[in-house]
Write a structure and sequence with these properties.
single chain, 197 residues, alpha+beta, seven-stranded antiparallel β-sheet, 7 strands, 27% strand, globular
């Protein structure tokens, strides 16, 4: 069920008090940033209500499906993919629209609030917040990434972390680009493998 919730990860960045450069990778015109922090609070929210913080960007596969500036044909296809994705989630989670608002201590970078339909992350988890353009992903990672004493080691693996985030982004794009049910299911499985903790 964990993979189901993270399939349609809807991330909303409510606030970054201070944003510092993170790990970055450049592929297919995307700029991926990866930042690390510790979850200090989690609160249930209804993803369809007004309880979601303002200033949000949509993440996950549905964020990629937004078709601003694209052809009518592509907009229609993306709407169908989005509907299929939403239907898959609704059926497997029995219509749940519950998500979590996570407050993340980003150390010297300040605090961040992330809203996602992933509910498995718990208080005290070290997480990577991966953002590319208008889409994002959050995943649990080794607590070593959140320990200030490991800053040099974290910097040494920054390129690898950015590549992992970019692979997740590309897997999400495969979901959007799927034109058959078989392609969609394959892409969904690949996205779960590459984007979840």
């Amino acid at each position: 069920m964990r993979g189901t919730f993270s399939f349609m990860t809807t991330l909303l960045f409510a606030s970054f008090l201070v944003i510092a450069p993170g790990a970055q990778a450049q592929k297919k015109g995307q700029n991926v940033t990866v930042q690390y922090g510790t979850v200090i609070q989690k609160e249930k929210v209804n993803l369809n209500s007004g309880a979601v913080p303002r200033g949000a960007v949509v993440g996950g596969a549905l964020g990629l499906a937004s078709a601003g500036g694209k052809s009518k044909k592509k907009k229609a296809r993306n709407a169908l993919v989005g509907a299929a994705a939403g239907g898959a989630i609704a059926s497997s989670s029995q219509g749940s629209t519950q998500g979590m608002l996570y407050t993340i201590d980003m150390g010297s970078m300040g605090m961040a609030q992330v809203v996602t339909d992933q509910t498995e992350i718990v208080r005290g988890d070290c997480v990577a917040v991966e953002k590319a353009g208008e889409t994002a992903n959050v995943r649990r990672i080794s607590s070593g990434y959140c320990q200030p004493d490991n800053a040099a080691a974290v910097a040494a693996v920054a390129e690898d972390s950015a590549e992992d985030a970019d692979e997740c982004l590309q897997a999400k794009q495969m979901v959007v680009d799927a034109t058959t049910a078989q392609e969609f299911e394959f892409a969904k499985a690949k996205m779960s493998l590459l984007c979840d903790d």
